[in-house]
Amino acid sequence: MYRVQFRAFTPSPVEIPGLLRVVSRSLRDSQCIVVEKASWVLANCDDVLVKVSLLLTPPRGELIVGFEGSMIITIEGSDSSSIVKMASILVSALEGVGAGVTIES
């Protein structure tokens, strides 16, 4: 089983839920079976499982009301080329709306 995990973020935390919708739409457009809730998405794309969850954390060292946010995307499957293909689709969609993406593992 292969696995890749990456984080998507925007300059403004209020944009994070919009990123979740972008990911969900990209998965549906790729003919995936998608289960979507307010703070997470789970999708089956042939032999690839995609898990997406929002992370909201209080700002570090600041007393400002607000949250710093990001989204963790995990892609798992038995075929590494399918994982890379799905990662490419999702990263392209996220970068297309101005999100930053970093690989976690």
Q: What is the number of independent domains?
A: 1
CATH class call: Alpha Beta
What would the CATH topology be?
A: TATA-Binding Protein
**How do the strands line up in the largest sheet?**
2-3-4-5-1-6
Strand content: 35-45%
Q: What integer value in Å does the Rg equal?
A: 14 Å
Question: Could you give the order of the helices and strands?
Answer: EHEEEEHE
**Mean pLDDT score, rounded?**
85
Main β sheet profile? 6 strands, antiparallel
> Which overall shape is indicated by the principal axes computed on the Cα atoms?
globular
CATH hierarchy: architecture? 2-Layer Sandwich
- Measure the end-to-end span: 14 Å
Helix content: 25-40%
Structural class: alpha+beta
Task: Give the count of helical stretches.
Answer: 2
Low-confidence stretches: 62-67
Count of strand segments: 6
Explain this structure to me?
- Helices cover 30% and strands 40% of the residues.
- It is an alpha+beta fold and 105 residues long.
- The chain has a single domain, classed as TATA-Binding Protein, CATH 3.30.310.
- The chain starts with a strand and ends with a strand.
- Helix 1 crosses helix 2.
- It has helices at 16-29, 80-96; strands spanning 2-9, 33-36, 40-45, 48-57, 68-77, 100-103.
- Strands 2-3-4-5-1-6 form a 6-stranded antiparallel beta sheet, with helices on one face.
- The protein is globular.
- The relative contact order is 0.30.
- Residues 62-67 have low confidence and may be disordered.
